[in-house]
């Protein structure tokens, strides 16, 4: 599987604008409440009495960054293992796709995936997910999230090439450590990026009440 | 327009019964119900989607098949502050299936694709959304003279025909003007301006909104206002900066499209970023090396403290911090030896800073108490900016959207002049925001004019103009300020919302509702059921730009020509057609209203389009037009040679001027002035930067709201930090202890897009509070809070973050008010419910100075997430 495809996200350039999210919704026809791609916000630090002026407060280690995440088309996909009907399968190019006609709607995959990549469609009673825009990629084009990004922080390509160029970091807090499913993901860290599983901050999406 | 001038009503719908029933089903059977309301009228036209649509006007699920159609360059036409991006709509049989952005050329940092933001990509939700106004409507309990006026905003609606709507509107406007004169009609938009001009004029509004005090102060002291003229260098020169200071700006939210990409290029080239802002905003998150939290409305005090530190520590030999050469040659008013003609030498800036003028030295310690930045940090900040040779001192308009901030731009300029960061490579001082974020200088490409001649020779029957902060009190109290000591009576009977969103978008919304319920007649032209429409008597549905002939817009180095994407939806009509039809009923010649066809206007703009010459000199024609093109368009004109053929421009929808460093198309603001100020004077009175500006002081005096000094004297703003105290000296807080700032929010461009489901979901209109203040109130993210100012109360879900400075809270501006009339609480999160109408200075809006208190809401109202709430639709007539 040397030609397996993966994503690179540049967390140092992500402004959290959700353009990729809307582009994805547009391409995949997803109404509010459903998504294949999300932007995760992570922040931390706090306020202390200003050491130079005790009448004031001063920021102490305040940081924030965003990660745009979708299906990671993992090398060891947890969803695939959890699926009792064999509806999920991995193509030769590593893209994890779902054969909707075989999906029973049990939602085990949704529960198994540590990236929240699977989306239940209440109108059909079946699951759906990011397919890396294979209709476009097969024709030599790029996925819509990639061409939508206003800071050019998303990239798709053969994962070994991405790893050669950008290193092997595949997780940052609040994502789970990469060992679990071996995501095909390369992250260029934000200067304040924190190690997965060892972060001092917290997820801070204002819209997290939706999930 | 001529395409629609034939009739008043759309013919029988082409929609087949299957589609019709689907639409009925998803809209809760309401179309069928509407058949009863609009009995005898033709069926509705639309929706234009081939599948069931859900309540956001978008396909419910499943990959969108991109076959059998065509991509059409589609307008993104809003006052969004973005870089002006290219949209492309995939249209199959007159229906839009998907929207994408610029892929017309390979992407590069020098000549980037003009990529759209989330809003642009969600444009479908506006054009085909469920709260689209579908046909003319009349408020049930309205009758000429007002009817039951107190029901405005709560009344039911009746569908009426275009003929009836136009007849009623024309008759009522004519009656009011005949009985009470032109001065009884208040026009708050602009799309009927030509009609009112033909009728002898109506009362209009004035006052800087977005710009804050940059609008008037900026040009008077020698800097640009930041939009029509800029003071910063072009985007490629930003890469020459060592330090970029962004003072009170968040382009990641307020200037979307490519602007953050431009700043990221500067960061990659090695620039450090310093943010001064109460909020560690998303731009700071991405770019900042240092963040200095400052209290809203106190930026001026912080800058004074920095200026004091510079004067205090400056030693021309051993520690040069002040650029005396620049001050002496290029400015007036800094010290007694360089005063403008006729000014009192005692009124100089240096002595004010040092306290010789008023006995109060503006020391960093003095400033710290006001602005919340410690004195040692103020000193370090001043040194860092002064000692970093290639520094861009950039601000956005937000700090100037505060009460009494008329002198703030002058203080900002003072800092720029003292440090000499003006007029050289990598050095600049001024506004970098909105459409012009990170890219200053005159345009390199542009469209020609429409060729529509202005209406001349009609005598004006009124010249009254009312400041935005007095609009509602003028209606309620019958008086307005016309100048210094000049209060005049006025008797306003009609409100016309021809575009804009005045009720929601000027301060003092609660008073605005009262004023709307006082008027005899309220008219709205719009394409959605926004608050203007809700509080009206007659509502006329207009087309969006997707339903109109052409749209031209660009920025410094590109021009967009977008086209009509779909037919007018439902019974919507162009504003120009409405103006002409109303005019015809009021005795105005139809041809006066529509003198040039849309096709000819498009042609004129193309034929007149220009692009800068190859070395940055002169202008050339942009578009090559052939005889065949002219024949095909059915217009009059001459063939011409240009850089791009008309068919190619039509297909791509965009022309970009290719850029690269050293191409002669860059821009260094004030470069020649700095070199030779005598030969290249500024357009100020003195020809220099005016740190003493008599004209500014006179201007503010003549407006009639307050007085200011000709030099940058700090004035504690109305409802600023000082007013959060009962006793500032003794540190005793008052009933409104928190400072509210109102942000450009990513869901919207001002009030536009507030109805789009995708955006409502992604951006929940959260109320932002510091973790310190939340803890003190025992509040957490997700709690519903009650926010109270002196002017109104709002309910919102809370979002707690360490990224906000303690003492400061924030809410996005532009959400549509949703006032519950029993409790008086707004559930929509409209900031102008909280912002009071308090005219100060040059009559700008002081949105970032508002004092509030926040508590847990314990009342009976529920507040589900915005995107789960039903769409805003007219009661009784959907
Ligand atoms: S930034 Fe403005 S022009 Fe660009 S896509 Fe967004 S709303 Fe449209």
Keywords:
heterodimer; A: 211 residues; alpha+beta; Alpha-Beta Plaits; three-stranded mixed β-sheet; three-stranded antiparallel β-sheet; 10 strands; globular; B: 878 residues; Rossmann fold; 38 strands; binds iron/sulfur cluster
Task: Walk me through the structure.
Chain A has a domain of 145 residues: Alpha-Beta Plaits (2-Layer Sandwich). Chain A contains 6 helices and 10 strands. Chain A is an alpha+beta fold. The radius of gyration of chain A is 18 Å and the shape is globular. The longest helix of chain A has 10 residues. In chain A, strand 2 and strand 3 form a beta hairpin. In chain A, 51% of the residues are buried. Chain A has a 3-stranded mixed sheet with strand order 8-1-9. Chain A has a 3-stranded antiparallel sheet with strand order 3-2-10, with no helix packed on it. Chain B is of the alpha/beta class and 878 residues long. In chain B, helix 12 runs antiparallel to helix 15, helix 12 crosses helix 16 and helix 18 crosses helix 20. Chain B is globular. In chain B, the strands form 11 sheets. Chain B has a 6-stranded mixed sheet, with helices on one face. Chain B has 31 helices and 38 strands. Chain B starts with 16 loop residues before the first helix and ends in a 22-residue tail after the last strand. Chain B has 4 domains: 58 residues; 203 residues, Rossmann fold (3-Layer(aba) Sandwich), CATH 3.40.50; 252 residues, Dimethylsulfoxide Reductase, domain 2, CATH 3.40.228; 148 residues, Barwin-like endoglucanases, CATH 2.40.40.20. At the A-B interface, helix 1, strand 2, strand 3 and helix 5 of A face strand 3, helix 10, helix 11, helix 16 and helix 29 of B. The site of iron/sulfur cluster (SF4) has 13 residues of chain B, from helix 3. Iron/sulfur cluster (SF4) binds next to helix 3 of chain B.
